[in-house]
Amino acid sequence: MSLDKILSIGGKPGLYKLIAQTRGGFVAESLIDNKRISVSVQNNISILSEIAIYTLAEEVPLKQVLERIKKKENGEQASVKPKDSKDKLEEYFFDVLPDYDEDRVYASDIKKVVQWYNLLQKHDMLDFSDSEEESDTTTSDEEE
Predict the structure, then answer these.
(1) Which residues does 132 contact at the CB level (< 8 Å), separation at least 6?
(2) N or C: which end of the chain has fewer CB atoms below 10 A?
(3) Which residues, in sequence order, are CB contacts of 27 under 8 Å at separation 6+?
């Protein structure tokens, strides 16, 4: 599944799947308890596909970070818990993304990435290969 339809809503725990668009916002379904909520455009909403992690050289898309965690964990839940110490979280993230910018990526950000990874892994939403194929076919169609 693509991260284009997965949302983080400010003030609400977990992640949400975009279900439908309405006039004043949209309907989203929680990945935690499957409850649907109506979200207005005034809410602070982040689409996971648009989030990136700062490194010393560039910004790395969240999708690549999640893929690196998946590879490190062999597709299982993260070996570090979101409630672990700041040092343990930073050490884990350093293994995943060695050149992440320690001044701009806080322990709370790492905690969120680990929580999101675990939630997406639990719902088997970490297979991004189909979204890559879609963008590849779009590119080849445009070239012809």
Answers:
(1) none
(2) C
(3) 19, 20, 21, 36, 37, 38, 39
- Distance separating alpha carbons of residues 82 and 101, to the nearest angstrom: 19
DSSP string, 69-105: HHHHTTTS--SS-TTS-HHHHHHHHHHHSTTB-TTTS
Given this model, what pLDDT does residue 140 score? 40
Our CA dihedral for 66, 121, 106, 102, rounded to 10 degrees, sits at -30
The two structure tokens encoding residue 47? 């689409």
Mean pLDDT by 10 residues, the chain (144 residues): 89 94 92 94 92 96 96 94 95 95 95 96 83 42 42
Q: Could you tell me how many helices (H) and strands (E) the chain has, helices first?
A: 4, 7
At a CB cut-off of 8 Å and minimum separation 6, what does 9 contact?
16, 28, 39, 43, 44, 45, 46
121-136 per-residue burial string, b: 16 or more CB within 10 A, e: under 16: beeebbebeebeeeee
